[in-house]
Amino acid sequence: MSNSKFSISKVAIHLILIAWAITTITPLAWVIMNSFKSSSEIISSALSFPTKFNFNNFRALGAYSQINIPRGFFNSLVISGTVVVLVLLFGSMAAFVLGRFKFFLNGPIMLLLVASMLVPQFAVIIPNIRILQFFHFNNTYLAVIVPHTAGFLNFAIIMMAGFMKSLPVELEEAAIIDGCSIPKIFVKITLPLSVPIMATSGIMIFLWSYNDLLLPLVYLTGNLRPISVLLTQISSQFNTDYGAMMAALSITIVPVIILYIVSQQYVIKGMTAGAVKG
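Request: output the structure for the sequence above.
Response:
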């Protein structure tokens, strides 16, 4: 009887996951499929496969010199990549202190981090602009990198602190007996074991920074704007050319999907390495 209940619950969970995957994959597949159709074909049969693969939509995007898609990708990678590195660097150090040490400000700091996640971006735009003007970061990569790093640190610290707190204390005790200092314990023991949560946090932070539209639209102009801002320009210029709009969306989302799939493999490898080292 217990085995049958287990089987039914397992099947139900798999069905839910399959339905969730379908609802997630279907819109992406629909966009990519329609990127190879003409606008008239999209209007007449949006849900069907293209009769032939038409690359004219992608060629049309290169006809506008003011929309530099390769430059937009480069800007997105520079901004998002730098944000991930800075957040993981500072976040891991703060998480190590909050997760592995007990002191009277531990609880209030964690509560403050959780509360800061409730503050919307719109509420801090004007203070951010004043600060960026003071440090002369206007219209530079730092105008987005610094606010993104500060905005995503709370999430990363909370995630990594909870993971580091669950690590066995005996590892640190053995390292201290062997003469390891606190910085060495952090670098040699805690960081290698925290690879899974750092990889997960890094993936989510990269996607959030890559997809963010508000801050780059407000703080950056010209050739510094990332692909998320260029997509809005493409949408406004090709508002009647649905094929070109679908092609622009495909160019934007396909690299993210590939990065996400590749990063998932690294998360699994990190979990295996952490288990072996533990």
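The CA atoms of residues 24 and 39 lie 24 Å apart.
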